[in-house]
Write a structure and sequence with these properties.
Length: 151
């Protein structure tokens, strides 16, 4: 039988780990974690970024482009935080493999977790199609990624 354990963005599970030090709690996700059906993970924090931290956006492409070395993740102060995003994504994929996870529910629009939409890198709240770094890494590893709106 296929493992039904799900990885979820930790902020959706109520953890105050977003760039602004807040959570984006989703009661359905919190219930999945509480019942042991889901495991929360924050690739940004696991990659070494602080809480809170300056907001960051992918510049020059999508999460897949970041993983291929063709785009960067830059914070609003101009600091390149790509290495932390890539490190966190790799740790998240490693966890998925260790747990035998085949599905992840991630926070849309995040430079790490966006599944269909990410900000365009201008810091002007403009969205574009694409996945965040962790979402792209999970998808490349065969994990189905979807956002919280699917619940």
């Amino acid at each position: 039988m296929k493992n039904t354990l799900i990885l979820v963005s930790a902020c959706l599970a109520g953890e105050c780990c977003r760039y602004d030090g807040m959570a984006k709690s989703c009661p359905a996700i919190e219930a999945l974690v509480k019942t042991g059906q889901a495991v929360p993970f924050c690739p940004e924090v696991k990659g070494g970024l602080t809480i809170p931290r300056p907001p960051a956006e992918i510049q020059g492409g999508t999460g897949a482009d970041v993983l291929a070395g063709q785009a960067r993740v830059i914070n609003v102060n101009g600091q390149d935080v790509t290495e932390a995003y890539v490190r966190g994504a790799k740790l998240g994929v490693k966890l998925a493999k260790q747990l035998g996870v085949h599905r992840a529910i991630l926070k849309e629009k995040s430079p790490a977790c966006g599944t269909q939409l990410i900000y365009d890198g201008s810091f002007e709240r403009r969205l574009r199609p694409g996945q965040g770094v962790w979402a792209a890494a999970l998808a490349a590893a065969g994990v189905a990624v979807e956002n919280e709106d699917r619940l």
